[in-house]
Amino acid sequence: MNELPKYVLIVAGGRGLRMGEQLPKQFIPIAGKPVLMHTLDAFVRYDASVRLIVVLPESHQQYWQDLCREYNFSVPHQIATGGETRFHSVRNGLKLVNSSGLVAIHDGVRPLVTTDVIDACFRAAASDKAAIPVLPMIDSLREYNETGSMPVDRTRYCYVQTPQVFDSATVLSAYDVPFDECFTDDASVVEASGHPVTLVAGNRENIKITTPFDLLIAEAVLKGRTNI
Ligand SMILES: Nc1ccn([C@@H]2O[C@H](COP(=O)(O)OP(=O)(O)OP(=O)(O)O)[C@@H](O)[C@H]2O)c(=O)n1
Ligand SMILES: C[C@](O)(CO)[C@H](O)COP(=O)(O)O
């Protein structure tokens, strides 16, 4: 892969309402440190030269600085301020991308992302300009209709994960638009700008911590990993 600068934009500007805790989930400690520190560590393990940008709620920026001191967390990173939705948080973070290169956008609450998945996404984006990790559906699927519901062909659908990696010019111009409710991830923004997105294999461990159950799973997986 040619050595373009690699930016990693970690979005952690949300409030974690579905977790039902006062403290936003990205700051909750699991397996010895806050979720967000595990996430940053995963990217540094992949490549220590990545340029990290972390998007945080304005209300918790001092809190994060205090946490970094408390945990002696010294991974270099820039801070951007979160917005009303994930889209707005990403857009704020992208303002700190100041040279051409590749930009990975990753949920701060996906701390179990593996080096293999990060590498596969960067490699695919280096050739295709836009790449995202996906997983096949495991369970049977049904679709609601007017009369009830009906089974659908699960092979036509997939789960979408992060990191979603893009050529910087492609993602910067894609995000220069007003917010649309259809923008549930970065791939949807880039595709709306007319650029196709390449799908690469994700990893089942790479869950997004959303509910208290996810926190238990994430902690168990982290504790089970022997190499960190
Ligand atoms: N305004 C927002 C909303 C979300 N995110 C981030 O986007 C990621 C995925 O979003 P989600 O899991 O939906 O997080 P929250 O919005 O915090 O959760 P909830 O929807 O339960 O409130 C998280 O790392 C979250 O911090 C963000 O940076 N800014
Ligand atoms: C970006 C994402 O992680 C892809 O699965 C997801 O869209 C994040 O937000 P959501 O609110 O949980 O859909």
From TrEMBL:
UniProt pathway: Isoprenoid biosynthesis; isopentenyl diphosphate biosynthesis via DXP pathway; isopentenyl diphosphate from 1-deoxy-D-xylulose 5-phosphate: step 2/6
GO molecular function, one term: 2-C-methyl-D-erythritol 4-phosphate cytidylyltransferase activity
Domain of life: Bacteria
BP GO annotations: isopentenyl diphosphate biosynthetic process, methylerythritol 4-phosphate pathway
NCBIfam families registered for this protein in UniProt: ispD, PRK00155.2-3
PANTHER family: 2-C-METHYL-D-ERYTHRITOL 4-PHOSPHATE CYTIDYLYLTRANSFERASE, CHLOROPLASTIC
Protein name: 2-C-methyl-D-erythritol 4-phosphate cytidylyltransferase
Species: Parabacteroides chartae
